[in-house]
Amino acid sequence: MADEDRDKTKSGGANDSRDERDVSVSTRPPVSASSSSPSSHRRHVPPLYGVMAEFDNPSDLVAAARATYEAGYRRINGYSPYPIEELSEAIGFRHTSLPLIVFIGGVIGGLGGFFLQYWTEVLDYPLIVGGKPYNSWPAFIPITFECTVLVAAFSAVLGMLLLNKLPQPYHPVFNAPNFALATRDRFFLAVEANDPKFKHAEVVEFLKSLGPVDVADVEV
Amino acid sequence: MEEPREPYMEGPMHSTHPVIEPGLTFASVTDKISSIVLKRKTSIGWFVGFAISFALFQLMLLAITNLVFVGIGLWGVNVPIAWGIDILNFVWWIGIGHAGTLISAILLLLRQKWRTSINRFAEAMTLFAVAQAGMYPIFHLGRPWLAYWLFPYPNTMGIWPQFRSPLMWDVFAVSTYATVSAMFWFVGLIPDFATLRDRAKSKAFQIIYGMLAMGWRGSARHWHRYEMAYLLLAGLATPLVLSVHTIVSFDFAVGIIPGWHATVFPPYFVAGAIYAGFAMVLFLTIPLRRFYGLEGFITMRHMHNMAKVMLATGLIVGYGYIMEAFFGWYSGNRYERYMIWNRMHGPYAPYYWALIVCNIVTPQFLWAKKLRSNLAVLWLISVVVSIGMWLERFVIVVTSLHRDFLPSSWGMYKPTVWDWSMFVGTIGFFFTLLFLFIRFLPMISIFEMRTILPEAEVED
Predict the structure, then answer these.
(1) Residue from the list B164, B215, B456 with its beta carbon closest to the beta carbon of A167
(2) Most CB atoms closer than 10 Å: which of A141, A161, B58, B409?
(3) Residue A50: which H helix or E strand, with range?
(4) Residue B361 phi/psi, 5° resolution?
(5) Is A78 strand, coil or helix?
(6) Could you tell me the fold of the domain covering B20-145+162-456?
(7) Which residues of B touch A58 (CB under 8 A)?
(8) Considering A163, A188, A206, which residue would you say is the last residue of a domain?
(9) Confidence of residue B18 (pLDDT cuts 50, 70, 90)
(10) B85 and B391 Cβ atoms separated by less than 8 Å
(11) What is the ipTM of this complex?
(12) Is the CB of B26 less than 8 angstroms away from the CB of A132?
């Protein structure tokens, strides 16, 4: 079915401009989509983002992801309607620098908050209030704390979005058939075409052997 | 009710009610919650409720317009009671907000799965309550158009805010709280925006929800960072929510007025906030789950748990009242003693005793499982507690101020019609926002509901 789709786009001359745009977007070499379709003129073939297998339950997806990782594929990704801890482990994604970013944000917020008060009350405009010393630091703690939390929270949210490269309105995986169900009850596993081991026919065969509901090519 | 015990139950301790109705699936959870926003016809009840709230909201705008034109003299506040029901309402609203953060952040850290069905709604309640709360101190300034003077910015006058004052702490605490609550809420909504984007039939909704979802695609790498961010936000929001009401209590406790100057204030205020907040969550969810048929998601288990939290925090608040009276007596200070005597026997004594009945006596009914299971009773108790918490702040604010050290400066306080208009108006604004939220956003977190379904378990 996926092959049909690809042939359809290939034969349409009107698609040329689209192909060119797509190629220019893609930074990697136009990958070996041709391996399955013998008569291809390279510039007519839309570059391939990867191959996507669809599953109808989380256990199959996690098992398939593990098998794919063990088979040596590294540029793989899972898609699920809710967070699955085992899935990110299965695709070999364990580390995120987000906690570090948040920590740094918190430290900056805390120091900044205290310095704001120290500078204004001690250095810039020293004024005795209520007989307290200029640097009445215990009274500065609440605002220091609030600034810590505020900057740390901003770092958490913006850091998460930035590391995830969101907002990103367009992404090739949205082209996968049934992908709208990835926010409902379907589970997807993608092997990306820029994986060093990626050979189209092999990957399709391999994914089919993992018991998916469907396997389809995903174009850029 | 006969239900299979596993895996709907969390443990043998809670064998009576499941967290989620058995038989639900990924598909049915998704479709049921998203259909409230996308498919279901807007009911007459919604329009009626929205119209009433919106009308009251107009009353608020009228009250504010008049206040800004005429000035603060429109309110009943004057020396010695410069803080009338306006500051009282600020504390009341922000207290209500705290239950939302407690449910979404603290219960997340404590791994209480039952929070999942009510956290989105409770967070929305937090945001909308904080929005009401934030207006009061600003309009109480008298010249609200200069409210930005509260923030430290380099200005031509060459001066800075007074950072040693609890009122400045309040500015930072409340604005941080509002910001962090909004971010926490929005982050929680991102995956659900994606769900709505993919379910929406109309182009406009697809575009709007699509923009809000920011291209969320449920990638495992994204989920990993997302969960981390969510957890960290919960970890940050937990001390934040405690700090906010602590600082609100400092507004009082740092002052030397008898009745305010007490060390018990921070914990007593925080407990009171959670108490009032859970009362409000119950007050809102009991009718809501009925009208939208959400009994499968918000089960009797939730009702019991919320009632228990209300009972526990109610007891802490009761302890606070007893300690206030004890401090008054034990201090040996004539002003402190007079303050507590005046509360119990002075001109505002009916408020004090009404508060004792509402906040200490009423929640005792919650010890009985039978009464906890009766939703009508539970709803009534939540109304009584909400009123009781309002009275508590009235007693703290007004009776402390109206007779302090010098009898020559004693006075009485009576809220004017404009005080009441503003209060009723903010209730209208709160419900206006809530009605819009129910109509246009998923009021239950869809993706988190999926995680607690039995089919979400990954088998090896």
Answers:
(1) B215
(2) A161
(3) strand A48-55
(4) -75, -50
(5) strand
(6) Formate dehydrogenase/DMSO reductase fold (1.20.1630)
(7) 455-458
(8) A163
(9) confident
(10) no
(11) 0.91
(12) no
Asked if residue A189 and residue A148 are part of one domain, the reply reads no
Whether residue B7 has pLDDT greater than 70: no
Give the pLDDT confidence of B188-233 residue by residue, as tens digits: 999 999 999 999 999 999 999 999 999 999 999 999 999 999 999 9
Task: Report yes or no: B342 and B403 within 8 Å, Cβ to Cβ.
Answer: yes
Residue A32 lies in a domain: yes
Cβ distance B217 to A174 less than 8 Å, yes or no, reads: yes
pLDDT in tens, B226-280: 999 999 999 999 999 999 999 999 999 999 999 999 889 999 999 999 999 999 9
Question: Are A125 and A84 within one domain?
Answer: no
pLDDT tens digits along B21-49:
888 899 999 999 999 899 878 889 999 99
CB half-sphere exposure, B326, CA atoms < 13 A: 8
- What's the residue count for chain A? 220
How many C-beta atoms lie closer than 10 Å to residue B268's C-beta? 24
Q: CB neighbours (10 Å) of residue B99?
A: 30
Which strands form A48-55's sheet, in the order they lie side by side? A76-79, A187-192, A48-55, A214-219
With 0-12 / 13-18 / 19 or more C-beta atoms within 10 angstroms meaning exposed / middle / buried, residue A44 is middle
Beta-carbon contacts of residue B337 (< 8 Å; ≥ 6 apart):
B328, B329, B331
User: What are the angstrom distances between the C-alpha of B153 and each of A116, A123, B312, B327?
Assistant: 10, 15, 43, 41
Residues A84 and A108 grouped into a single domain: no
Are the C-beta atoms of residues A196 and A31 closer than 8 Å to each other? no
Give the span between the Cα atoms of A66 and A213, in whole angstroms: 17
Residues A181 and A84 both lie in one domain: yes
Phi and psi of A188, rounded to 5°?
-125, 150
Does residue A65 form part of some domain? yes
Pair A10, A77 in one domain: yes
Same domain flag for A150 and A181: no
**Please, which pLDDT band fits residue B9 given cuts at 50, 70 and 90?**
very low
Q: Is A164 on the interface with B (CB under 8 A)?
A: yes
Average pLDDT estimate for B138-145: 92
Query: What is the dihedral sign for C-alpha A38, A39, A42, A43?
Result: negative
Query: Which structural domain, as residue segments, surrounds residue A143?
Result: 98-163
Lowest-confidence range among A42-51, A95-104, B174-183, B429-438?
A: A42-51
| Cβ neighbours of B245 in A, within 8 Å | none
pTM over 0.90: no
- Could you tell me which residues come within 8 angstroms of residue B24 by beta carbon, excluding any fewer than 6 positions away? B32, B296, B453
The DSSP H or E segment spanning A49 is strand A48-55
Question: Are residue A87 and residue A107 in the same domain, yes or no?
Answer: no
Which one of B184, B223, B236 has the shortest CB-CB distance to A83? B223
Length of chain B in residues, anyone? 460
Tokens (6 digits) for B284 = 């809102």
The total number of structural domains that make up chain A: 2
Answer yes or no: do B240 and A62 touch at CB < 8 A: no
Q: Are residues A70 and A177 in the same domain?
A: yes
Does any CB of chain B come closer than 8 Å to the CB of residue A79?
A: yes
A215 domain-assigned: yes
Three-class SS state of B6: coil
Tell me, yes or no, whether A168 lies in a domain. no
